[in-house]
Here is the input.
Amino acid sequence: MTLRFRQPGVLPGFGLTLGFTLGYLGLLVLIPLAIAFLRVFQLSWDEFWQIVTAPRVVASYRLTFGAAFLAALVNSGFGLIVAWVLARYRFPGKRLVDALVDLPFALPTAVAGITLTMLYSGNGWIGQYLKSLGIKVAFTPLGVIVALVFISLPFVVRTVQPVLEDLEAEVEEAAASLGANRWQTFRRIIFPAIRPALLTGFTLAFARAIGEYGSVIFIAGNLPMVSEITPLLIVSKLEQYDYSGATAVAVVMLVISFVLLLLINLLQRWSRTRQV
Here is the structure.
């Protein structure tokens, strides 16, 4: 009978690491969120409902979540194309293009907002041509969507690109040799393989866009009931020392975001189950 000794791991045991994980998450995530909910409980139901259903607040919810959803949806399509080009083709300047995808990660959001405003304003490099076509981007809800598309693109590309790189090109060649056209190959072979990653990228882009502030406030114009996002409304309430109102709006936004992300995660699980 041979005795086998367990090799010591690099990290401490399960109990210590689990305790550190729960303590770390509790300190940074759970405690701040719990304080926000406790602050809301100091309001009566009528006061809370009156704050979170005010027309200005509802309009900000509609713009924030609607623009975030549209931006994530746009990036799911165009981000897939960018990831496909970077994963499947070789061309001069590929490394530069690959680095440019990560630019929204490193660029300060205020700089991004100012740059986009200069480009898409009525006398900007791009805005002046769009203005002649009757399209106004800056200081409109469309400008909010443009800013959110800019900052959330890398989340889709960097999630889908590794999956495409791991997907062997021989699979596509085998499908073509069996008589499948390009659309059939994409729909039946490529898309099922990348669908979980694409949903993950959509989720990350959507979550990032919901909380965006710096790049949006410059290009949106911040007109109440028109182009005012919920994070800006929360900041405005804080500047007016309306802490209870700001917390109430923030809690509603938190609950809606959590429910939407939960639904998307359930959709991801269903997609993985279908794939298996």
Q: What stands out?
A: Residues 55-88 form the longest helix (34 residues). DSSP finds 13 helices and no strands in the chain. The chain has a mean pLDDT of 86. The two ends are 41 Å apart (CA to CA).
